[in-house]
Amino acid sequence: MSAKFSRPDSCIISFSLIGGLIVFLTVLSLLNITLAQLGDIPYLISVASESKVIDSVILTLAAGLNAVILLLILGTPLAYVLARVNFRGKGFIEGLVDLPIMLPHTVAGILVYILFMRRGIIGEPLGTLGFVFEDAYLGIVAAMFFVSSPYYINTVREGFEKVPVHLENVARTLGATRFAAFRKIVLPLSVRHIFSGSVLAWGRAIGEFAAVIMIAYYPMIISTLIYYRFTTSGLKESSTIAFIIIVICFVVFAALRLLIKRLENYDERV
């Protein structure tokens, strides 16, 4: 029995070499910072155990999570409408949804600040009710929500579009309302996309810097703290904090990616 060897595909090999440069640069940068930090473990531990660093990490992750929760509540209905309904001006609405992706982050921050500052259209009336956004936790969440919204809405809309419309129509002919068909058919079949959109939005939210500092320099999220330490204490301290958040993000998102993979396998079985 002779073994069959497939001939190497020159196109795939070329593409792999070209695309591999991106992976190489990422690996090189990670190795560079990792080796530098592992060369001084006591200093790494002392920075990682600082209460300000721990508080900043928790604040960043929590604010990003709150932004995602708001997207689940507000973004899911919008994604469904964009997936299922054709109406005049839909392209304009889709352009508005995508706008935060294209805007410079400082511009996004200005837009959020104008809306939510103490004399802003939204900030002033909410301020009378006790909700303050300037240099406050709510301001961080608002900025994160704005910049991460396209990632969630577009991913979830793609998931809704993949659910066959006739499944909803069958349910409605059997007496189900549109909302009941959405809740019992569309949502369960779109869980993977909703989860993927949430992970993407969360990652985008916790990585934001410029938009956040425009409205809330304090309390400091991790990006703001790294910038502050870089300008006041230098590269060593700021790079150590950066290494800590790299490790946390890598572990968290690797776990979430594994979960997404399991959801993909579940979808294939369904």
Automatic annotation (TrEMBL):
Family: Belongs to the binding-protein-dependent transport system permease family.
Domain (ABC transmembrane type-1): residue spans on this chain: 57-256
Keyword Transport: yes
Xref: Pfam families: BPD_transp_1
Subcellular location(s) per record: Cell membrane
UniProt keywords, alphabetically: Cell membrane, Membrane, Molybdenum, Transmembrane, Transmembrane helix, Transport
Protein name: ABC transporter permease
A cellular-component GO term for this protein: plasma membrane
Transmembrane segments: 12-38, 58-83, 95-116, 136-153, 209-228, 240-260
InterPro entries, A to Z: MetI-like, MetI-like_sf
Keyword Transport: yes
